[in-house]
Specification:
With about 190 residues, this protein is an alpha+beta fold. It is built from two helices and ten strands. The radius of gyration is 30 Å and the shape is rod-shaped.
């Protein structure tokens, strides 16, 4: 009788041990699945930056009179960074250049695709001209800042992040930059982007 009690006790302990292993394994699998869902399927924000801005064909009329003006071609590279585990498909957009809040130029950013965890570089060319602006304000900038012109560049790219072909999230990337154009050296100084 003692041996049957011992074997029954032993079987009960063995079943309890296996049950605890199975429950522990299930908890571990649930933990792994939750980490996967949080790290892989979480949709992060898209980043857009303006880089390597160059000036070409700068023409200035910097007389200290109401006739001061500027025009140029601005070549730049826009980068769109996707840190998600799915690709980002974006629509057509426009980079707008402004001088004292007034539109002076723009460049198109065509629709495209940024692969998962990568960056897309887009070269743009914008024709910038102060012809739509009051001439006396351009003259005052030449007098006040040693022939430096402050330009603002802004863009907004709208698209969707596709993760594992089941999750589609709309994401908007925004960029606002302020830069100074030095008309003497024909370079861009002090560019700050948000």
């Amino acid at each position: 009788m003692d041996s049957t009690i011992r074997t029954d006790d032993f079987n009960k302990r063995r079943k309890a041990t296996w049950a605890s292993y199975i429950i522990g394994g299930i908890i571990f699998l649930i933990f792994i699945i939750l980490v996967f869902l949080y790290a892989i399927l979480r949709v992060r924000s898209i980043k857009i930056h303006l880089q390597s801005v160059n000036i070409k064909d700068l023409v200035t009329n910097n007389r200290l009179s109401p006739a001061a003006s500027f025009s140029m071609l601005l070549k730049a590279q826009v980068t769109i960074k996707n840190s998600n585990f799915g690709h980002y498909k974006f629509e057509n957009s426009t980079l707008v250049l402004a001088y004292r809040g007034t539109h002076v130029g723009e460049a198109g950013i065509g629709k495209g695709l940024v692969k998962a965890r990568s960056m897309k570089r887009i070269n743009i060319v914008a024709k910038v001209s102060s012809s739509s602006w009051k001439r006396d304000d351009v003259s005052s900038d030449y007098r006040a800042s040693s022939q430096k012109i402050k330009l603002a560049a802004s863009a907004q790219v709208t698209g969707k992040v596709h993760v594992l072909k089941i999750i589609r999230r709309k994401k908007i990337a925004k960029m606002n930059c302020i830069m100074e154009l030095d008309t003497k050296t024909q370079t861009i100084d002090n560019m700050h982007c948000k």
